[in-house]
Amino acid sequence: MNKKIAIIGGRGTVGKKISRKALEKGYSIKMLTRYPKESGSEICFIKGDARNKEDIKELIKGCDAVINTVGHPKSEKPFYSAVTSHTIEGMKELGIKRYIVATGASLTLNGDEKTFLNQVGANLFQLFFSAMMKEKEKEYELLKASLLDWTLIRLPFIVDKKGKGHIKVATKNMPGKVITNEDIASFSISQLDSKKYIRCTPFISN
Ligand SMILES: NC(=O)c1ccc[n+]([C@@H]2O[C@H](COP(=O)([O-])OP(=O)(O)OC[C@H]3O[C@@H](n4cnc5c(N)ncnc54)[C@H](OP(=O)(O)O)[C@@H]3O)[C@@H](O)[C@H]2O)c1
């Protein structure tokens, strides 16, 4: 039987190549969206809002893993920790273990060895996007406190281009400045069956 994955944010800049890559690899998909199309044999769309606990539960029911690449609209307050909190709660209730989440490379954590330039970049994010960064820090704390098999992927700038096929991964500092969303999709899907970065926060780039 093929595995089913739940996707949150599957139509965003970061997430929009994930469903295609998942289908290529033989997974079936449930995708949360506020604006669903008609579901087909390949993707089951679940209409809902990621800030709503019941919608998340409806999404992840019957799935083997969850990938979250949600992005908050600029007109709204960032809500990353609420989405992850509902997801963790739902996954615990339904006995789902694997959770893969996207965040920004500007998230600085204990043990990082960022270059001076990357530290400056992270500080600018703290200064200009403090509400977002607080949400991202809170999301990380929720993940750490959970018993899930999570991976928090730290991303640089995204380019909407064909994948380059080579992906650098590092744990303490950004290995590069950009990544294509097709390569993010490849990395995210490859993590579904990998234990290498469980409970880790890898940076990836091209
Ligand atoms: N873009 C970048 O350059 C970049 C760089 C580094 C890190 N990141 C990080 O990557 C993550 C995703 O960023 P992004 O740029 O891809 O964001 P984005 O394009 O704004 O994400 C839009 C996606 O989020 C979904 N979404 C938004 N609000 C929702 C809600 N209330 N309920 C359900 N779904 C909702 C949308 O679904 P529907 O519209 O279908 O409902 C859509 O699939 C974020 O954590 C961001 O900080 C982004």
Automatic annotation (TrEMBL):
GO molecular function terms attached to this record: oxidoreductase activity, acting on the CH-NH group of donors, NAD or NADP as acceptor
Record-linked Gene3D superfamilies: NAD(P)-binding Rossmann-like Domain
Pfam family, one: NAD_binding_10
PANTHER family hit by this protein: FLAVIN REDUCTASE (NADPH) (PTHR43355:SF2)
Name assigned to this protein: NADH-flavin reductase
Lineage: Bacteria, Bacillati, Bacillota, Bacilli, Bacillales
